[in-house]
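Bug report

Summary: structure tokens for GntR family transcriptional regulator differ between web form and batch submission.
Environment: batch mode, default settings.
Steps: 1) Submit the sequence below via batch. 2) Compare with the web form result.

Sequence submitted:
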Amino acid sequence: MVEYRIDRHSGVATYVQIVQQTKQALRMGLLRPGDRLPTAREVVEATAINPNTVLKAYRELEREGLVEARRGLGTFVRRSLGTGPADSPLRTELEAWADRARAAGLEREDVAALFTAVLDQHFQGDPT
């Protein structure tokens, strides 16, 4: 099951953070079709956010066809995203690179900016 981490200082709306983290878990294979998302109550207890915020995020995911709400049962994953499993050799290489970046004194924001610039360069014009 996914555990949401809310960064109140990121400037990103809380419901968007939930949507993004759910999509990341789907891409990484941490969530699979048939898996149940945490209930709104479970998310509220873990993150101290408004239950309506969780429901808004889940509605957005449902609108995108990624999850489905089943009355009285919860919200379940309908389909996955991506093909990169969590134990991919590329993940191992990326972790080693992140370790080297941190050892070189780069801050998280520096690494994110560098990585985003490289992604933009290599995936320019890619609609995904």
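Above is the batch result. After comparison, the two runs are identical; trailing whitespace caused the diff. The chain has two domains: 14-77, 89-122. The chain has a mean pLDDT of 90.
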